[in-house]
Design goal:
This protein is of the alpha+beta class and 199 residues long. It folds into two domains: 2-46, no CATH class; 80-192, Chitinase A, domain 3 (Roll). The protein has helices at residues 2-12, 22-35, 43-47, 123-126, 139-146, and strands spanning 80-81, 87-92, 105-114, 119-122, 130-133, 153-158, 182-192. Helix 1 packs antiparallel against helix 2. Residues 1-30 have low confidence and may be disordered.
Length: 199
Amino acid sequence: MFALSACQSATAAPEGEESPTEPESTAPVEEATPTAEPAPAEEPPAAAPDTPAPAEVVAPVVEPDPNAPRNVAAPPKSAKRSKSGLAWKVLKKGRGKGRPGKFDTATMNYTGWTSAGRLFDSTERQGQPMVIPLNRLIYGFAEGVRMMTTGEKRRLWVPGDLAYGEKLAGAEAPAGQPLGMLVVDVTLVQIRRELHQVR
């Protein structure tokens, strides 16, 4: 620190009248330079080999939901199927007669799993049922709900091509949009007719 201040005074001297004394001020500079030991600065590179921490980061393992249906991997033989490939099974009969139209708004409770049994979405986690126009749902989900009556509960096996897409090598889906077949337990709570829509 002291040698650095001497260098600063030497450069400032030409502006004043004490220029003859400049050579004397440079002598301490020569003595100070060997005292500056850069050895401590060479220590950080030695710590570099101790930084493989990022390589140890491992993606979290998502365990299957213990409450997932046993037949989550594939629809049973007793399940009914539509021409599109959607499969379903009625878990509880409804009390209504009418079914929602393509543009009607449905209030529903649901829980969805992947074919591996991983829970990916549920109105129970949100604390309230979902209210949404059926034309804003993924095709397979909307198709299944349009077959239901109020109060009915169904299990839907939605193929990937009717949901967010099939599983492909290297393909990644946005968060909350898993690829492949999805299994959804859905209960239709209420139907709101949208009469102004053309069906």
